[in-house]
Amino acid sequence: MNPVQHVRVKIFALEPVDLAGAIPVFHRWIQERVRPEMLIDVADYRHVPNGPGVMLIGYEADYSLDNTKGRLGLLYSRKQAGGAAQENLRQAYDAAVAACRLLEGSRSLTGS
């Protein structure tokens, strides 16, 4: 049986999000090491219609406020997951939920 090599989980937003506000939030995540992965850089793709939005690039995984097909959400993308498929999916889901919780507490994303 081949291990799962790449896992992506997207949790859709229920309310509008200020993507520009995600840029300093993601930079803070890098500086303060708020996630367990090694995070490297932030990429701004807001100019791409229905595209990746704002991405937080990491060594093991990427996070993005993704607007593919016009459906905004947090996309967690694990690179080279390895291991059992069920474990990989659980890890990716848990990471996406944890990131959503952090984003929910970020005032710069809602403008409030």
Topology summary:
Blueprint: E1 6-12, H1 19-32, E2 39-45, E3 53-58, E4 61-66, E5 73-79, H2 85-104
Antiparallel strand pairs: 1-5, 2-3, 3-4, 4-5
Would you report the number of β strands?
Answer: 5
State the major sheet.
Answer: 5 strands, antiparallel
In angstroms, what is the radius of gyration? 14 Å
- H-E string: EHEEEEH
Distance between the termini: 49 Å
Helix proportion range: 25-40%
Q: In terms of per-residue confidence, which ranges show pLDDT below 50 for 5 or more consecutive residues? A: none
Instruction: Give the strand order of the largest sheet, numbering strands 1, 2, ... along the chain.
Output: 1-5-4-3-2
Mean pLDDT reading: 90
Shape: globular
- The assigned structural class equals alpha+beta
- How much of the sequence lies in strands comes to 25-35%
Number of helices: 2
Can you give a write-up of this model?
By secondary structure, the protein is α+β, with helices and mostly antiparallel strands. The chain has 2 helices and 5 strands. A 5-stranded antiparallel sheet has the order 1-5-4-3-2, with helices on one face. A hairpin with a 2-residue loop joins strand 3 and strand 4 (61-66). It is globular. The mean pLDDT is 90.
